[in-house]
Amino acid sequence: MNKTFNDIIELKKHSIHLQNIAFKSIEPKKSGPLTVTLSDEIEYEGCKKGVVVFVLKSQMESDPEAIYDLAIDVKVSLMYSIKDKEITQEEIDELFRKNSNAILNRTPVYDYLSLLISQITSAFGKPPLVFYRTANNN
């Protein structure tokens, strides 16, 4: 029988720390509809002593032209315990790497990013941009 992530590892508390914000407001050259998207990169930093760490790097993109140059990096640390005592450290690392999207969806990191983005984009008198996102629909 193949065990699932939940059979092997129990996630507990989490913490989210802002690492970096790079922001620039750009005045559009022409008016009209824009498509604004965010792209994410999840970096697995490792795990030891019951804590796993990921860095989520989010970059805003818009088409046909940029209205903001915005990049936000956050570090997500999660406490965990091992249910299956026969698993090796290499197998634990592989489980965290393979399941990073699902793991981050169990935290409010995407809500945190949406709030930050709306606050940053509205700081200069423009309407805030609000995103509903998960690791699977970023």
| Residue runs with pLDDT of under 50 for 5 or more positions | none
Number of DSSP E strands: 4
CA radius of gyration: 18 Å
Give the spatial strand order of the biggest sheet: 1-4-3-2
Number of helices: 4
Topology:
Layout: H1 5-8, E1 9-25, E2 35-48, E3 51-63, E4 68-82, H2 89-98, H3 100-105, H4 109-122
Antiparallel strand pairs: 1-4, 2-3, 3-4
Structure characterization notes:
The mean pLDDT is 87. Strand 2 and strand 3 form a beta hairpin. It is elongated and about 60 Å long. It has helices at residues 5-8, 89-98, 100-105, 109-122, and strands at 9-25, 35-48, 51-63, 68-82. A four-stranded antiparallel sheet has the order 1-4-3-2. The two termini are 33 Å apart. With 138 residues, it is of the alpha+beta class. Helix content is 25%, strand content 43%. It has four helices and four strands; from the N terminus they run H-E-E-E-E-H-H-H.
Write out key terms for the chains shown:
alpha+beta, 4-stranded antiparallel beta sheet, 25% helix, 4 helices, elongated, 138 residues
Outline of this structure?
The protein has 138 residues and is α+β, with helices and mostly antiparallel strands.
